[in-house]
Write a structure and sequence with these properties.
alpha/beta; Adenylosuccinate Synthetase, Chain A, domain 1; binds inosinic acid
Protein backbone atom coordinates (compact mmCIF):
# COMPACT_ATOMS: atom_id res chain seq x y z
CA UNK A 1 0.00 0.00 0.00
CA UNK A 2 1.36 3.43 -0.82
CA UNK A 3 2.03 6.22 1.65
CA UNK A 4 0.07 9.27 2.81
CA UNK A 5 1.91 12.48 3.68
CA UNK A 6 0.46 14.75 6.37
CA UNK A 7 1.66 18.35 6.24
CA UNK A 8 1.15 21.57 8.21
CA UNK A 9 0.04 24.32 5.85
CA UNK A 10 0.82 27.36 8.00
CA UNK A 11 3.57 28.10 10.55
CA UNK A 12 3.26 24.81 12.40
CA UNK A 13 1.04 24.22 15.43
CA UNK A 14 -1.99 23.52 13.25
CA UNK A 15 -2.98 20.63 15.49
CA UNK A 16 -1.03 18.03 13.50
CA UNK A 17 -0.35 15.91 16.60
CA UNK A 18 -4.02 15.16 17.14
CA UNK A 19 -4.63 14.61 13.42
CA UNK A 20 -1.59 12.36 13.00
CA UNK A 21 -2.85 10.33 15.91
CA UNK A 22 -6.26 10.13 14.22
CA UNK A 23 -4.74 8.98 10.91
CA UNK A 24 -2.41 6.65 12.79
CA UNK A 25 -5.41 4.48 13.59
CA UNK A 26 -5.48 3.41 9.94
CA UNK A 27 -1.72 3.37 9.41
CA UNK A 28 0.66 0.53 10.21
CA UNK A 29 3.82 2.62 10.24
CA UNK A 30 4.10 6.32 11.15
CA UNK A 31 7.27 8.11 10.08
CA UNK A 32 8.69 11.50 10.97
CA UNK A 33 10.83 12.81 8.15
CA UNK A 34 12.29 16.22 9.15
CA UNK A 35 12.81 18.65 12.02
CA UNK A 36 13.79 17.73 15.54
CA UNK A 37 12.73 18.56 19.06
CA UNK A 38 11.84 22.07 17.92
CA UNK A 39 8.46 20.46 17.17
CA UNK A 40 5.90 19.64 19.80
CA UNK A 41 2.78 17.54 19.58
CA UNK A 42 0.07 17.51 22.18
CA UNK A 43 -2.11 14.42 22.06
CA UNK A 44 -5.09 13.81 24.28
CA UNK A 45 -5.89 10.09 24.47
CA UNK A 46 -7.97 8.21 27.00
CA UNK A 47 -8.11 11.27 29.22
CA UNK A 48 -4.29 11.51 29.31
CA UNK A 49 -2.29 14.35 27.75
CA UNK A 50 1.04 13.57 26.12
CA UNK A 51 3.57 16.10 24.88
CA UNK A 52 6.11 14.70 22.44
CA UNK A 53 8.93 16.52 20.72
CA UNK A 54 10.80 13.80 18.88
CA UNK A 55 8.71 10.66 19.15
CA UNK A 56 6.23 10.14 16.32
CA UNK A 57 2.66 10.40 17.57
CA UNK A 58 1.67 6.91 16.43
CA UNK A 59 3.48 5.17 19.27
CA UNK A 60 0.44 5.73 21.47
CA UNK A 61 -1.60 3.33 19.41
CA UNK A 62 -0.95 -0.29 20.31
CA UNK A 63 0.54 -2.39 17.53
CA UNK A 64 1.68 0.56 15.42
CA UNK A 65 5.25 1.01 14.31
CA UNK A 66 6.84 4.47 14.53
CA UNK A 67 10.00 5.45 12.67
CA UNK A 68 12.24 8.50 13.01
CA UNK A 69 13.52 9.04 9.48
CA UNK A 70 16.97 10.04 8.26
CA UNK A 71 15.79 13.63 7.65
CA UNK A 72 15.25 14.24 11.37
CA UNK A 73 17.90 15.69 13.69
CA UNK A 74 17.81 13.92 17.04
CA UNK A 75 18.70 15.20 20.48
CA UNK A 76 19.54 11.87 22.16
CA UNK A 77 18.97 13.25 25.63
CA UNK A 78 15.43 14.37 24.76
CA UNK A 79 14.63 11.13 22.95
CA UNK A 80 15.81 8.96 25.85
CA UNK A 81 13.73 11.11 28.18
CA UNK A 82 10.60 10.78 26.01
CA UNK A 83 10.96 7.01 25.76
CA UNK A 84 11.29 6.93 29.56
CA UNK A 85 8.14 9.03 30.00
CA UNK A 86 6.18 6.82 27.65
CA UNK A 87 7.26 3.65 29.43
CA UNK A 88 6.66 5.06 32.88
CA UNK A 89 3.03 5.64 31.87
CA UNK A 90 2.54 2.06 30.76
CA UNK A 91 3.12 2.47 27.01
CA UNK A 92 5.76 0.59 25.08
CA UNK A 93 8.45 1.95 22.75
CA UNK A 94 9.31 -1.47 21.36
CA UNK A 95 7.92 -0.56 17.94
CA UNK A 96 10.14 2.50 17.59
CA UNK A 97 12.91 2.52 14.98
CA UNK A 98 15.45 5.29 14.43
CA UNK A 99 17.15 5.75 11.09
CA UNK A 100 20.86 4.92 11.16
CA UNK A 101 21.33 7.97 8.89
CA UNK A 102 19.60 10.55 11.11
CA UNK A 103 21.92 13.22 12.51
CA UNK A 104 22.56 13.78 16.20
CA UNK A 105 22.18 17.10 18.05
CA UNK A 106 25.00 17.57 20.56
CA UNK A 107 25.54 20.19 23.29
CA UNK A 108 27.66 22.40 21.03
CA UNK A 109 24.78 22.71 18.56
CA UNK A 110 22.62 24.20 21.29
CA UNK A 111 25.40 26.55 22.38
CA UNK A 112 25.95 27.69 18.79
CA UNK A 113 22.20 28.19 18.28
CA UNK A 114 22.08 30.48 21.32
CA UNK A 115 25.28 32.34 20.47
CA UNK A 116 24.26 32.95 16.85
CA UNK A 117 20.87 34.28 17.92
CA UNK A 118 22.52 36.64 20.42
CA UNK A 119 24.90 37.91 17.77
CA UNK A 120 22.09 38.50 15.30
CA UNK A 121 20.95 41.24 17.67
CA UNK A 122 18.15 43.09 15.82
CA UNK A 123 17.72 40.35 13.20
CA UNK A 124 16.90 37.37 15.40
CA UNK A 125 15.16 34.38 13.84
CA UNK A 126 13.51 33.57 17.16
CA UNK A 127 14.67 29.93 17.10
CA UNK A 128 13.58 27.41 19.70
CA UNK A 129 17.20 27.27 20.89
CA UNK A 130 17.31 23.48 20.51
CA UNK A 131 20.35 23.40 18.22
CA UNK A 132 18.32 22.53 15.14
CA UNK A 133 19.95 25.02 12.72
CA UNK A 134 23.56 24.20 13.74
CA UNK A 135 22.83 20.42 13.49
CA UNK A 136 21.52 20.85 9.94
CA UNK A 137 24.50 23.13 9.18
CA UNK A 138 26.80 20.26 10.16
CA UNK A 139 24.83 17.85 8.02
CA UNK A 140 25.22 20.12 4.99
CA UNK A 141 28.88 20.76 5.86
CA UNK A 142 29.43 16.99 6.05
CA UNK A 143 30.72 17.14 9.58
CA UNK A 144 27.62 15.84 11.36
CA UNK A 145 27.47 12.64 13.38
CA UNK A 146 24.83 10.15 12.29
CA UNK A 147 23.04 7.61 14.48
CA UNK A 148 25.02 4.67 13.08
CA UNK A 149 28.26 6.31 14.22
CA UNK A 150 26.80 7.65 17.42
CA UNK A 151 25.95 4.17 18.72
CA UNK A 152 29.44 2.87 17.91
CA UNK A 153 31.66 4.15 20.80
CA UNK A 154 34.98 4.29 18.92
CA UNK A 155 33.47 6.13 15.93
CA UNK A 156 31.54 8.47 18.19
CA UNK A 157 34.67 9.26 20.22
CA UNK A 158 36.70 10.06 17.11
CA UNK A 159 34.01 12.17 15.42
CA UNK A 160 33.20 14.00 18.62
CA UNK A 161 36.83 14.87 19.14
CA UNK A 162 37.21 16.24 15.59
CA UNK A 163 34.04 18.29 15.94
CA UNK A 164 34.81 19.68 19.38
CA UNK A 165 38.18 20.97 18.21
CA UNK A 166 36.42 23.03 15.54
CA UNK A 167 33.37 24.07 17.54
CA UNK A 168 35.47 25.30 20.46
CA UNK A 169 37.30 27.65 18.10
CA UNK A 170 34.01 28.98 16.77
CA UNK A 171 32.59 29.44 20.28
CA UNK A 172 35.81 31.21 21.31
CA UNK A 173 35.46 33.56 18.36
CA UNK A 174 31.84 34.28 19.30
CA UNK A 175 33.19 35.43 22.65
CA UNK A 176 30.63 34.20 25.18
CA UNK A 177 33.21 32.14 27.07
CA UNK A 178 31.49 28.77 26.60
CA UNK A 179 33.75 25.76 27.11
CA UNK A 180 33.21 22.26 25.80
CA UNK A 181 34.22 19.39 28.07
CA UNK A 182 34.91 16.57 25.65
CA UNK A 183 35.13 13.82 28.26
CA UNK A 184 31.94 14.88 30.04
CA UNK A 185 30.03 15.05 26.76
CA UNK A 186 31.36 11.67 25.65
CA UNK A 187 30.50 10.02 28.95
CA UNK A 188 27.00 11.45 29.14
CA UNK A 189 26.13 10.90 25.48
CA UNK A 190 27.60 7.38 25.31
CA UNK A 191 25.01 6.52 27.96
CA UNK A 192 22.21 7.77 25.68
CA UNK A 193 23.77 5.99 22.71
CA UNK A 194 23.65 2.70 24.60
CA UNK A 195 19.95 3.20 25.38
CA UNK A 196 19.10 4.15 21.79
CA UNK A 197 21.22 1.51 20.02
CA UNK A 198 18.51 -1.22 20.05
CA UNK A 199 16.19 1.06 18.09
CA UNK A 200 18.64 2.05 15.34
CA UNK A 201 17.98 0.48 11.93
CA UNK A 202 17.94 1.14 8.20
CA UNK A 203 14.40 2.51 8.25
CA UNK A 204 14.33 2.98 4.47
CA UNK A 205 14.73 -0.78 4.00
CA UNK A 206 12.14 -1.46 6.71
CA UNK A 207 9.73 0.87 4.95
CA UNK A 208 10.25 -0.90 1.65
CA UNK A 209 9.47 -4.24 3.33
CA UNK A 210 6.38 -2.77 4.95
CA UNK A 211 5.14 -1.40 1.65
CA UNK A 212 5.77 -4.72 -0.12
CA UNK A 213 3.60 -6.37 2.51
CA UNK A 214 0.79 -3.92 1.74
CA UNK A 215 1.12 -1.95 4.97
CA UNK A 216 -0.24 1.58 5.27
CA UNK A 217 2.43 4.23 5.78
CA UNK A 218 1.86 7.69 7.23
CA UNK A 219 4.62 10.24 6.71
CA UNK A 220 4.21 12.92 9.36
CA UNK A 221 5.58 16.41 8.69
CA UNK A 222 6.76 18.64 11.53
CA UNK A 223 6.50 22.46 11.63
CA UNK A 224 4.61 23.84 8.63
CA UNK A 225 5.03 24.96 5.04
CA UNK A 226 5.66 28.61 5.99
CA UNK A 227 8.63 27.45 8.08
CA UNK A 228 10.11 25.54 5.11
CA UNK A 229 13.66 26.69 4.45
CA UNK A 230 12.98 27.32 0.74
CA UNK A 231 9.29 28.10 0.53
CA UNK A 232 8.57 29.69 3.89
CA UNK A 233 9.09 33.17 5.28
CA UNK A 234 12.90 33.09 4.91
CA UNK A 235 14.93 33.85 7.02
CA UNK A 236 12.24 33.36 9.70
CA UNK A 237 12.06 29.65 9.01
CA UNK A 238 13.42 26.40 10.36
CA UNK A 239 16.43 24.68 8.81
CA UNK A 240 14.71 21.85 6.95
CA UNK A 241 12.22 21.42 4.12
CA UNK A 242 8.80 20.95 5.65
CA UNK A 243 6.97 20.47 2.34
CA UNK A 244 5.60 17.11 1.15
CA UNK A 245 8.39 16.81 -1.43
CA UNK A 246 10.87 16.25 1.39
CA UNK A 247 8.89 13.33 2.79
CA UNK A 248 10.64 11.10 0.26
CA UNK A 249 14.19 12.28 0.96
CA UNK A 250 13.65 12.49 4.71
CA UNK A 251 12.03 9.07 5.11
CA UNK A 252 13.99 7.26 2.41
CA UNK A 253 11.07 6.33 0.16
CA UNK A 254 10.61 6.92 -3.56
CA UNK A 255 8.21 9.58 -4.88
CA UNK A 256 6.27 6.75 -6.51
CA UNK A 257 5.22 5.46 -3.12
CA UNK A 258 3.28 8.62 -2.21
CA UNK A 259 -0.39 8.28 -3.06
CA UNK A 260 -1.96 11.09 -1.06
CA UNK A 261 -1.09 14.37 0.61
CA UNK A 262 -3.31 15.86 3.29
CA UNK A 263 -2.84 19.34 4.71
CA UNK A 264 -3.75 20.52 8.20
CA UNK A 265 -5.14 24.06 8.26
CA UNK A 266 -5.89 25.78 11.55
CA UNK A 267 -9.09 27.86 11.31
CA UNK A 268 -7.03 30.97 12.15
CA UNK A 269 -3.34 31.89 11.94
CA UNK A 270 -0.63 31.58 14.57
CA UNK A 271 3.12 31.68 14.61
CA UNK A 272 5.95 31.80 17.11
CA UNK A 273 9.16 33.61 16.40
CA UNK A 274 9.89 36.70 14.38
CA UNK A 275 8.86 37.96 10.94
CA UNK A 276 5.93 39.81 9.37
CA UNK A 277 2.50 38.23 9.83
CA UNK A 278 -0.08 40.08 7.70
CA UNK A 279 -3.26 38.93 9.44
CA UNK A 280 -1.89 39.27 13.00
CA UNK A 281 -4.39 40.79 15.45
CA UNK A 282 -2.62 42.67 18.22
CA UNK A 283 -5.96 43.41 19.87
CA UNK A 284 -8.88 41.78 21.67
CA UNK A 285 -9.41 39.24 18.85
CA UNK A 286 -5.76 38.16 19.01
CA UNK A 287 -5.92 37.88 22.78
CA UNK A 288 -9.09 35.79 22.63
CA UNK A 289 -7.56 33.41 20.07
CA UNK A 290 -4.45 33.08 22.23
CA UNK A 291 -6.40 32.27 25.38
CA UNK A 292 -9.21 30.18 23.95
CA UNK A 293 -6.89 28.30 21.60
CA UNK A 294 -4.27 27.72 24.32
CA UNK A 295 -1.76 29.16 21.88
CA UNK A 296 1.45 28.67 23.81
CA UNK A 297 4.39 26.85 22.24
CA UNK A 298 4.55 23.15 23.21
CA UNK A 299 8.35 23.35 23.08
CA UNK A 300 9.21 26.76 24.49
CA UNK A 301 5.97 27.85 26.17
CA UNK A 302 6.16 31.15 24.25
CA UNK A 303 2.78 32.78 23.51
CA UNK A 304 2.01 32.45 19.80
CA UNK A 305 1.15 35.46 17.69
CA UNK A 306 -2.47 35.11 16.54
CA UNK A 307 -4.58 36.43 13.68
CA UNK A 308 -7.28 35.71 11.12
CA UNK A 309 -7.06 32.83 8.65
CA UNK A 310 -4.89 33.73 5.66
CA UNK A 311 -5.89 31.95 2.46
CA UNK A 312 -2.95 33.43 0.52
CA UNK A 313 -0.80 31.28 2.81
CA UNK A 314 -3.03 28.21 2.54
CA UNK A 315 -3.18 28.41 -1.28
CA UNK A 316 0.64 28.71 -1.37
CA UNK A 317 0.76 25.51 0.71
CA UNK A 318 -1.83 23.67 -1.36
CA UNK A 319 0.18 24.38 -4.52
CA UNK A 320 3.57 23.43 -3.06
CA UNK A 321 2.39 20.26 -1.36
CA UNK A 322 -0.21 19.08 -3.88
CA UNK A 323 -2.79 18.82 -1.13
CA UNK A 324 -5.62 16.39 -1.91
CA UNK A 325 -7.69 17.15 1.17
CA UNK A 326 -7.76 19.69 4.00
CA UNK A 327 -8.21 18.96 7.67
CA UNK A 328 -9.56 22.13 9.26
CA UNK A 329 -8.74 22.29 12.96
CA UNK A 330 -9.71 24.36 15.99
CA UNK A 331 -12.96 25.68 14.50
CA UNK A 332 -14.35 25.67 18.05
CA UNK A 333 -11.88 28.40 19.07
CA UNK A 334 -13.62 30.91 16.78
CA UNK A 335 -16.95 30.35 18.54
CA UNK A 336 -18.24 33.42 20.37
CA UNK A 337 -15.68 35.72 18.81
CA UNK A 338 -18.36 37.60 16.82
CA UNK A 339 -17.95 38.19 13.07
CA UNK A 340 -14.96 36.33 11.63
CA UNK A 341 -12.63 37.48 8.88
CA UNK A 342 -10.73 35.51 6.25
CA UNK A 343 -7.94 37.05 4.19
CA UNK A 344 -8.44 36.25 0.52
CA UNK A 345 -5.66 38.40 -1.03
CA UNK A 346 -3.10 41.08 -0.18
CA UNK A 347 -2.73 44.63 -1.34
CA UNK A 348 0.93 45.20 -2.12
CA UNK A 349 2.08 48.68 -3.16
CA UNK A 350 -1.44 49.56 -4.30
CA UNK A 351 -1.96 46.35 -6.31
CA UNK A 352 -3.95 43.25 -5.41
CA UNK A 353 -1.92 40.04 -5.21
CA UNK A 354 -3.11 36.51 -4.56
CA UNK A 355 0.33 34.89 -4.35
CA UNK A 356 2.78 34.90 -1.46
CA UNK A 357 5.71 37.34 -1.87
CA UNK A 358 9.31 36.13 -1.75
CA UNK A 359 10.86 38.75 0.52
CA UNK A 360 10.03 39.79 4.05
CA UNK A 361 10.29 43.45 2.99
CA UNK A 362 7.45 42.85 0.51
CA UNK A 363 5.46 40.78 3.01
CA UNK A 364 5.80 43.57 5.56
CA UNK A 365 4.10 45.94 3.08
CA UNK A 366 1.22 43.52 2.36
CA UNK A 367 -2.16 44.59 3.65
CA UNK A 368 -4.73 41.80 3.98
CA UNK A 369 -7.96 42.03 1.97
CA UNK A 370 -10.66 40.38 4.06
CA UNK A 371 -14.12 38.98 3.64
CA UNK A 372 -16.26 39.08 6.74
CA UNK A 373 -18.38 36.08 7.74
CA UNK A 374 -21.04 35.54 10.38
CA UNK A 375 -19.76 33.98 13.58
CA UNK A 376 -21.26 31.22 15.72
CA UNK A 377 -21.83 30.81 19.42
CA UNK A 378 -19.28 29.50 21.85
CA UNK A 379 -20.06 26.00 23.11
CA UNK A 380 -18.69 23.94 25.98
CA UNK A 381 -16.35 21.10 25.00
CA UNK A 382 -18.89 18.38 25.88
CA UNK A 383 -21.48 19.96 23.61
CA UNK A 384 -18.90 20.05 20.80
CA UNK A 385 -18.20 16.33 21.21
CA UNK A 386 -21.94 15.62 21.21
CA UNK A 387 -22.34 17.67 18.01
CA UNK A 388 -19.39 15.90 16.38
CA UNK A 389 -21.03 12.54 17.10
CA UNK A 390 -24.16 13.68 15.21
CA UNK A 391 -22.09 14.42 12.11
CA UNK A 392 -21.15 17.38 9.96
CA UNK A 393 -24.68 18.53 9.17
CA UNK A 394 -25.32 19.09 12.91
CA UNK A 395 -22.69 21.86 13.04
CA UNK A 396 -23.89 25.49 13.19
CA UNK A 397 -24.74 26.85 9.73
CA UNK A 398 -22.19 29.68 10.10
CA UNK A 399 -19.43 27.18 10.86
CA UNK A 400 -20.32 25.17 7.76
CA UNK A 401 -20.25 28.40 5.73
CA UNK A 402 -16.78 29.12 7.06
CA UNK A 403 -15.72 25.65 5.90
CA UNK A 404 -17.30 26.22 2.48
CA UNK A 405 -15.45 29.54 2.16
CA UNK A 406 -12.13 27.76 2.80
CA UNK A 407 -12.96 25.17 0.15
CA UNK A 408 -13.91 27.83 -2.40
CA UNK A 409 -10.85 29.91 -1.62
CA UNK A 410 -8.41 27.01 -1.96
CA UNK A 411 -10.16 24.71 -4.44
CA UNK A 412 -9.53 21.81 -2.03
CA UNK A 413 -12.16 19.83 -0.15
CA UNK A 414 -12.22 20.03 3.64
CA UNK A 415 -12.34 16.33 4.45
CA UNK A 416 -12.16 16.57 8.20
CA UNK A 417 -13.31 19.28 10.58
CA UNK A 418 -11.94 19.28 14.11
CA UNK A 419 -13.92 21.09 16.79
CA UNK A 420 -12.05 20.17 19.96
CA UNK A 421 -8.90 18.51 21.28
CA UNK A 422 -10.56 15.15 21.99
CA UNK A 423 -10.28 12.32 19.47
CA UNK A 424 -14.12 12.22 19.38
CA UNK A 425 -14.35 15.89 18.34
CA UNK A 426 -13.17 15.03 14.83
CA UNK A 427 -15.74 14.92 12.04
CA UNK A 428 -15.02 13.10 8.84
CA UNK A 429 -17.18 14.21 5.91
P1 LIG B 1 14.34 26.49 14.90
O1 LIG B 1 13.61 25.44 14.14
O2 LIG B 1 14.48 26.21 16.36
O3 LIG B 1 15.66 26.84 14.26
O4 LIG B 1 13.47 27.84 14.84
C1 LIG B 1 13.24 28.53 13.62
C2 LIG B 1 11.83 29.08 13.56
O5 LIG B 1 10.91 28.02 13.43
C3 LIG B 1 11.40 29.85 14.80
O6 LIG B 1 10.53 30.90 14.40
C4 LIG B 1 10.64 28.83 15.60
O7 LIG B 1 9.72 29.42 16.49
C5 LIG B 1 9.93 28.09 14.48
N1 LIG B 1 9.56 26.71 14.80
C6 LIG B 1 10.36 25.64 14.84
N2 LIG B 1 9.66 24.54 15.14
C7 LIG B 1 8.39 24.92 15.28
C8 LIG B 1 7.16 24.19 15.54
O8 LIG B 1 7.13 22.98 15.70
N3 LIG B 1 6.04 24.96 15.59
C9 LIG B 1 6.05 26.29 15.38
N4 LIG B 1 7.15 26.99 15.12
C10 LIG B 1 8.32 26.31 15.06
Amino acid sequence: MPATVLIGTQWGDEGKGKITDYYAERADVIVRFQGGNNAGHTIVAGGETFKFHVLPSGLLRPGKHAFIGNGVVIDPKVLVDEIGQLESRGHSAKNLRISDRAHVILPYHKMLDGAEERLRAGAKVGTTGRGIGPAYQDKAARSGIRMAEFVSPEFFKARLSENIAIKQRILDAYGFGEKLDEKAIFDEYSGYAKKLAPYVADTSVLLEHAMTQGKNILLEGAQGTMLDIDHGTYPFVTSSNCVAGNACAGAGVSPRSISRVVGVVKAYTTRVGEGPLPTEQENEVGRKLLERGGEFGTTTGRPRRCGWLDLVVVRHSCRLNGIDGIILTKLDVLGGIGKTKICKAYELDGKKTETFPSTMAMLGRCKPIYDELDGWADMPAQEMVALAKKGYSALPREMREYVRYVEKGTGVKVEIASIGPEREATIER
